[in-house]
Amino acid sequence: MPRDLPPIEGIRHVHLIAVAGTGMGSLACMLADRGFHVTGSDLDTYPPMSDQLCDAGIAVKKGFVPDHVLRESPDLVVIGNAVRRDNPEARVVLETGIPYLSFPDAVHHFFMRGKHSVVISGTHGKTTCTSLVGWILVHAGADPSVLVGGVAPNLEGSFRLGEGEHFVIEGDEYDTAFFDKTPKFLHYGASSLLLTSCEFDHADIYESLEQIQSVFRKLVQGVPADGRIVAATDVTTVSEIVEDVAASVEGYGFKELALWRVSDVAFDRNGTQFSVWHGNERMARIRVPLFGRHNVENVLGSVALCHGLGVEVDAAAEALKEFRGVRRRQEIRGEAGGYVVIEDFAHHPTAVRETVAAMRACHPERVLWAVFEPRTHTSRRRFFEEDYVDALACADRVVIAGVFRAEQIPEDERMRPEQVVEGLRARGIEAEMILDVDEIIEHLVRNRSGKDVALIMSNGGFGGIWDRLLARLRKLEGK
């Protein structure tokens, strides 16, 4: 953090470099909501964040040009973690001495000080759990502030600014900025923490699971003695992290040793229901319109965390009946031509496996197509080739797209989709590697049974495949 950072009351204009990401775009809208003049720049913008920025009246400048900073002389610049040191705007900021902050430091500086920091962390489930915790607190009348790494319909967007004591934030272990290589979640000063999972990920910055565990240990060790940690202790990698910490730890999961656990889990077309136990006490029967074992755990951890924040389990159960999920998580984009088209953000093999299994259970009578784009820094590499075979094997038919920006990964490190396809075929699964989005769409259309589900998984835009597939199917229907 620069030493000459002006006091908040002296800041009028904030400029954000790489404003179109979910986190940075949400921060821009939060600042605008608080009355700051906000500008931003990025290479491109796309829905839903482009719509959110437009609705907030924020001017987004195309590309990264020094004049974007020099012309208006902002009082403060926020530099996103996708920005490199050689970015023209970032370089001007460093050369001219304009005060700057990273995204997490800006969130803390402007919005979290004086609040009870509720941090949601883990390899999987962060966005869903942040949305769940935020909604449960809203429903209970706690009026929290919430910042989600996605769009939460219950919160009417990706953030909420409330007057209550809690600030609920999704905290990830990725780098803060080119000038600060510490994980983002260390900047939020967690008083209450939910730790959902810990697996190897972010292969561009971490070399091993042990490295990732070490940064999570810093996170849990930073929770004060009067704070609270709710952790998925069924998982050894998580239980090891929360050993010997100052804060109290409450474990959750399916196993008997967990303080918070579930029983009598049942799935139907409308969602999931199960009983929640705290020790030997049955607390409530919960029903939620979500699917999959992973979402049972997400709900359980969120309910347990909110219990420590003053929300009784019965009250949380009432809120969960009205939970509307998160955009891009098991989101039904439409139905046409005999297909139900579903979008999901899954990219790590564990998330892919759980999502495929959930959709298999939800649509047992339909042919389940799993379409997967290797797009993240980790999935584009060979670490998980065999794991993706296991993850996708629950589907009836599989399509693996080409590796996104394959040229950025050395060939001897690059994921080989053909190897995943070969592994699936060896298990009797119909699988194809298809590089072009148009060809994927035609493959899905040409081989439809009339009663299909297309589960299309990517953490990026994937060429707009969801809408394009639906448009092609509707055209065939003559609509």
Give a brief rundown of this model.
Helices cover about 30% and strands about 25% of the residues. The chain has about 475 residues and is an alpha/beta fold.
Overview of the structural elements:
By secondary structure, the chain is α/β, with parallel strands linked by helices. The chain has 3 domains: 8-101, Rossmann fold; 114-320, UDP-N-acetylmuramoyl-L-alanine:D-glutamate ligase (3-Layer(aba) Sandwich); 331-477, Protein-Tyrosine Phosphatase, Chain A. The protein is built from 15 helices and 23 strands. Strands 8-7-9-6-12-13-14-15-16-17 form a 10-stranded mixed sheet, with helices on both faces. A 6-stranded mixed sheet has the order 18-19-23-20-21-22, with helices on both faces. The protein has a 5-stranded parallel sheet with strand order 3-2-1-4-5, with helices on both faces.
Q: Radius of gyration over alpha carbons?
A: 22 Å
Counted up, domains total: 3
Provide mean pLDDT, rounded: 90
Q: What is the strand content?
A: 25-35%
Range of helix content = 25-40%
CATH topology of the largest domain, which one?
A: UDP-N-acetylmuramoyl-L-alanine:D-glutamate ligase
Shape: globular
CATH architecture of the largest domain: 3-Layer(aba) Sandwich
* Alpha-beta classification: alpha/beta
Strands of the largest sheet, in order across it?
Answer: 8-7-9-6-12-13-14-15-16-17
